[in-house]
Amino acid sequence: MDSNILLELSNQYGCPIYVYDGNKIESQFARLSNAFAGVKHLRINYAVKALSNISILKLLKKSGSGLDTVSIQEVLLGLEAGFEPEKIMFTPNGVSMEEIEEVAKLGVHINIDNLSVLEQFGHKHPNIPVCIRINPHVMAGGNSNISVGHIDSKFGISIHQTPHILRIIENTKMTVNGIHMHTGSDILDIEVFLYASEILFETAKQFKDLEFIDFGSGFKVPYKAGDLETDIEELGEKLTTKFNAFCKDYGKELTLVFEPGKFLVSESGYFLAKVNVVKQTTSTVFAQIDSGFNHLIRPMFYNSYHHIENISNTEGKERYYSVVGYICETDTFANNRRIKEISEGDILCFRNAGAYCFSMASNYNSRYKPAEVLYYNNESYLIRKAETFKDLLKNQIIVEL
Description:
Belongs to the Orn/Lys/Arg decarboxylase class-II family. LysA subfamily. Substrate binds at residues 298, 302, 329, 356. One of its GO terms (biological process) is lysine biosynthetic process via diaminopimelate. This is Diaminopimelate decarboxylase. By secondary structure, this protein is α/β, with parallel strands linked by helices. It has twelve helices and 18 strands. The protein has helices spanning 3-13, 22-35, 54-63, 72-80, 97-105, 115-124, 162-172, 190-204, 232-250, 262-265, 298-302, 389-393; strands at 17-21, 42-47, 66-69, 88-90, 109-112, 130-135, 157-158, 176-180, 212-214, 255-258, 269-280, 285-289, 308-310, 318-324, 332-340, 347-351, 371-376, 379-384. The strands form two sheets. Strands 1, 11, 12, 13, 14, 15, 16, 17 and 18 form a nine-stranded mixed beta sheet that branches. The chain has an eight-stranded parallel beta barrel with strand order 2-3-4-5-6-8-9-10, surrounded by four helices. β11 (269-280) and β12 (285-289) form a beta hairpin. The N and C termini lie far apart (53 Å).
């Protein structure tokens, strides 16, 4: 998005604020769809956890997306946004059987990643088809916290436990109509992805009633100019060939499923914050903004990179700044980063703020969560109000002592 538009939005709605480019979300969805145009049946399930604002969900529904959910609350958001239950996949981890059964009552497809849960569910509900999440034991992802397919991961049922799965299916007479894997996020090397897909194909041959294979996601997006990203087009070409060959051998046209989150919304997002103070120390110049890791935790949590621009001074001379927040702990967004000269009152723009940014925000330090704005077809829409003091008190119960 143009810096002038972002600056206008910051003036109109105030800071700090999240802005999402709806047209970018649509173009990313189209790019992924086009990369797999050679597959007869393709389904893209957006991973709600990345950005769960209901207006964003409605926009993705308009594009033809389904949903990947990990909690009953995300399921309910999807239903509220107008998604049909059969277009929603529920892939929990470590939740109670009660939650799984509540979701099943809603008609949503269940993805099970635990032998105990599979057996319990199969005995109680043998007539409800389920998907099974396999752990392929492949280490993939840009950070240990987001690599979820390796042997020590809590996610999925080990491929070495496939005989146990088959025995449960035989004993319960349940139907497994899908098989799924997700190895991690920020996968750059598509050969790793293709290697894991071969493991999934080999495992899938042992299940006779499949209707779809879900390859998860984890595609890497660029975080700065010249940054590397997953070559979706090359992956599409190579995986399409493998998938179509598998379907021919399997004797049935299956549906190919992906569940992208970051790929669809990361680059659409911009986080805008105002500079409160420019503080010179003996070794560093700090740009201290009216936000902190309560609004954008990824740099502190994952050591993630967000490109930062001074949209108030786009033609200025570059200087080195450490951009920090107002939380009373180490609260650093960037160390010694080259940014156009910053003055107090300037607006800084953090890019790639669409995925896992607002959705991980909190009220730490009793700060308010910011507003969210959707910019779509040259129009802006306030899609979440900034919180107020009343919101902090909303669910508190004051006891007279």
